[in-house]
Specification:
The protein is mostly helical and about 550 residues long. It has 22 helices and no strands.
């Protein structure tokens, strides 16, 4: 079992010496044969691992475009529609840590194949859901099996590629697959709904999973912790009761603002999380080895990963609103406009792989976070009146930084722990991804909304000129930019133009405030990472 003193030395060894490997990982990674004879099979194994990565990434974003079709077909209530969206990420986030630990114990390939089989089967059943309740249950089940997939793929990469340089490239490809899937999700999902029906988004999981189910047992080597210990059921329950309220509270904060429900959920999750941590420290065989966090490389890399996703998703939040509500683009058009930035994420992740041979990895991560800060600087002090070009350019710069920081931080996360703990490390990394994404939306989204509401000045005569239900429409306009745009469509032209202009000014002022806060956070994170990780040597 790893501890803070035993993991710091392996961390340096993995980052500096390519062929170095933990003795327990040798049989798992190479099947007992020399590594050189298996290099071709290693890359074929990575190709297979990309199928579930792409699927999970597409599934995260594609369903958004199916919601109108789902609403027409199943006629869910407003609450049910929210749960159709939220059931999957809530269960997924709640089980990532448990599933990562399970993978270390029962075998990461075995867990991946179980998850792939279950994901494909549930997707097929859910695609033909006759009711909203069925679809919600199916989405929750997909979260259960999805939690088996992502930690398994990342931890298998750690053991398939013990050489640090090859592993770094494999992680860059893994991250590229995730970014590519996220980019394709809205476009692919929209096309499937237009050509077939909403269930096709789910049904497509079956053919995507077939290659890994057929070839995975042959090409992907098994790996596990040689001394796994027993499974603590109470720890699994505590981890679930920690993450589900936390994720729910953060999502509520993002969509409804601060209130009693979100505060109670976040507070309850933190209290149970404290109990979870205390239990892990007492157990001989904990579900999550808390000593991993005592390794400064591991904990700082996790922090960098969270902040990179925080910055990216917070930026996407106000950019999507700007493109659709102020520039009048359809969701698909807005998604296409963001593709160059997502491609930049992929390219940056691949380019930094050889860079860490010349530049210390801590400085590369800090440089990535600095690029993210530069993107926010462009928005905070730039002129937005010339259309979306400035925002899209800033997103491109930010995406380059996220791609660089995320690739190297993930490599540092996996390289700083012993191979037998890679499942737990991967699960923590994936949990950080979920939390960073949610916090970016919740924190920066709340700041943006509050600033909009404070700065909105409605034109005079609005109530007198509004159609029936004026009070409700004006209330919605005061709450969100979407409310103002919807009300403007029902007004005569001079007043509609005045309301649109006032809403634009209020929203853009909120964007400037939000971007300024993002700038300070990212710049501070860059300095922190550069200082803490300055001693990590360049790759060999």
């Amino acid at each position: 079992m790893g501890n803070s003193s035993s993991t710091s030395t392996p961390a340096t060894r993995h980052l500096t010496a390519g062929p170095a490997r933990h003795p327990a990982a040798a049989p798992a990674a190479t099947g007992g044969r020399p590594a050189a004879t298996n290099r071709g099979r290693d890359w074929l194994a990575l190709a297979l691992l990309m199928f579930p990565v792409l699927l999970v990434a597409v599934d995260n974003t594609a369903l958004t475009f199916a919601l109108p079709a789902i609403a027409r077909g199943l006629e869910p209530t407003g609450v049910q529609l929210l749960w159709i969206v939220d059931a999957y990420p809530l269960v997924l986030a709640g089980l990532l840590v448990a599933m990562g630990s399970f993978g270390d114990r029962i075998g990461r390939r075995r867990l991946l194949l179980i998850g792939s089989t279950g994901f494909a089967a549930v997707s097929a059943a859910t695609a033909f859901a006759p009711s909203a309740e069925w679809l919600i249950a199916g989405r929750a089940a997909l979260g259960f099996f999805g939690a088996m997939l992502m930690p398994s793929t990342l931890s298998l990469i750690r053991n398939i590629f013990p050489d640090a340089n090859r592993r770094r490239l494999a992680i860059a490809i893994w991250a590229a697959g995730f970014s590519g899937g996220a980019a394709l999700g809205p476009i692919f999902g929209g096309w499937l709904v237009e050509q077939y029906w909403w269930g096709a988004i789910l049904l497509v999981a079956v053919p995507i999973m077939l290659p890994i189910l057929i070839l995975g047992p042959v090409l992907i080597p098994e790996s596990r912790d040689p001394r796994p210990g027993s499974v603590d059921g109470a720890s699994i329950v505590l981890s679930l009761l920690t993450m589900v309220p936390l994720v729910y509270g953060i999502k509520s904060l993002a969509t409804e603002g601060f209130g009693a429900a979100s505060a109670a959920a976040i507070g309850g999750g933190l209290v149970i999380g404290y109990a979870f941590v205390r239990r892990q420290k007492r157990l001989t065989s904990p579900l999550l080895d808390m000593s991993l966090f005592g390794n400064r490389i591991f904990s700082t890399a996790i922090t960098a990963n969270v902040l990179a996703l925080f910055s990216f998703n917070g930026f996407i939040l106000f950019l999507a609103q700007h493109l659709q509500l102020l520039e009048g683009q359809r969701p698909t058009e807005a998604g296409i406009a963001m593709i160059p930035a997502l491609v930049a994420t992929v390219v940056a992740g691949l380019l930094v792989v050889p860079l860490v041979r010349k530049v210390r990895p801590g400085f590369v991560v800090a440089g990535g976070l600095s690029l993210s800060a530069t993107g926010y600087f462009m928005v905070a002090f730039g002129d937005h009146s010339g259309g979306p070009a400035l925002l899209l350019g800033a997103l491109l710069v930010l995406a380059l930084g996220v791609g660089a920081a995320e690739t190297i931080s993930n490599d540092m996360i996996l390289g700083s722990v012993p191979p037998e703990k890679s499942g737990a490390a991967a699960a923590i990394s994936e949990t950080g991804y979920e939390i960073g994404s949610l916090l970016g939306t919740a924190v920066l989204g709340s700041i943006l909304t509050a600033s909009y509401q404070r700065n909105l000045v409605l034109p005079e005569g609005l109530a007198a000129s509004s159609p029936g239900g004026a009070a409700e429409g004006i209330a919605h306009a005061r709450e969100t930019l979407a409310g103002s745009m919807e009300l403007a469509h029902s007004l005569p032209e001079p007043l509609a133009d005045a309301l649109t202009s006032a809403a634009r000014v209020a929203f853009e002022s909120g964007v400037h405030v939000t971007a300024s806060i993002g700038l300070v956070l990212m710049a501070g994170a860059a300095v922190l990472v550069a200082v803490v990780l300055r001693g990590v040597p360049k790759a060999a």
